[in-house]
């Protein structure tokens, strides 16, 4: 194959010097790096006793948040599932029934909301795509388990525990 510039590429190999042939400088350089690392203090964390602090942008386990009144924020719009590159999020939307206004924020809500933690790459795109700020990646680790089916997290593991704001205000006023 001929080059486009019609120039020939000429490679010249100059002969190696005596020191290059015996590799002594390369060996000395490698040993100096090894000796430097030998005397450095290694930052060891003894895990159960000491817990290493994580950075503020650590992406851990997913959680579905509630609003100030304790209602689920998720409206099952599906933007989190669309933005997920690993296709780890699945959901089924449903209509809110009469009398469920205290449970769900909007007319439409997620009846089934599942995240497959084995597929999730913890990129945070679902968190960015959510217009209602319903899904967050908290600073908790995804726990280990024995069965694959236990890594499919449903609403039972994802939704924050509900609290009653009226009982909370009664407790603070009685104190």
Would you give an account of this structure?
[4Fe-4S] cluster 2 binds at residues 84, 120, 123, 126. Belongs to the complex I 23 kDa subunit family. InterPro entries: 4Fe4S_Fe-S-bd, 4Fe4S_Fe_S_CS, NADH_quinone_OxRdtase_chainI. It is found in: Cell membrane. With 175 residues, the protein is α+β, with helices and mostly antiparallel strands. It has a domain at 62-162: 2-Layer Sandwich (Alpha-Beta Plaits). 25% of the residues lie in helices and 14% in strands. It is built from six helices and five strands, in the order ααβαββαββαα. The chain has helices at residues 18-22, 24-38, 79-83, 125-129, 155-158, 165-174; strands at 62-64, 89-95, 108-116, 135-137, 152-153. The chain has a three-stranded antiparallel beta sheet with strand order 2-3-5. The protein has a two-stranded antiparallel ribbon with strand order 1-4.
Short description:
Residues 65-94, 111-140 form the 4Fe-4S ferredoxin-type domain. By secondary structure, the protein is an alpha+beta fold. Helices cover 25% and strands 14% of the residues.
